[in-house]
Amino acid sequence: MSLYQRAGFETVPAVRCFLPAEAYIKEGNQLLSMKKTLEELMALKKASVPVTDRLWSKEDRHILPFYYVHGFQDVILEPIENVTILAEMEGDTFHLYDVLSPHKVSLAEVLRSIVPRNALRVELHFTPNEALSGLYREPDPDGGFMVHKSSKAAMPNNLTYPTIITA
Known about the structure:
Order of helices and strands: HEEHHEEEHEEE
Strand order of the largest sheet: 3-4-5-6-2-7
Low-confidence stretches: none
Radius of gyration: 17 Å
Number of helices: 4
């Protein structure tokens, strides 16, 4: 870190994005995880439009296999036709990691089709584009960006570094 600071970089804090679950609780049957091979998941990822344009990686296909073999094969859901999500319930928090679709989709619509009744809050592991009811941010004590002073003004505020592109 000190090497980067001597080279003119500064730390820009990151945030974590949350939603109150009650605004998005799914009515009806519980969703079941879908069995997808790694090849099927990779094809979905390749054909997908990013869920956000705030901060995302286009060429992150190398990291998805890592997550797949470390448990993400069990968190694949298909709540809407042509929409696959990576999400899981942990304690009282529903974690949404990624939305895979060949078309732009409404994140609010996707959330209303997946958030389980026992969730108290939803954590988005990316920075959403659209205005979502109840969205709030908390500082991410484990996150942050090293940005060169000359480009700091171009760095948007309140970004969440997407979990799914982090090793």
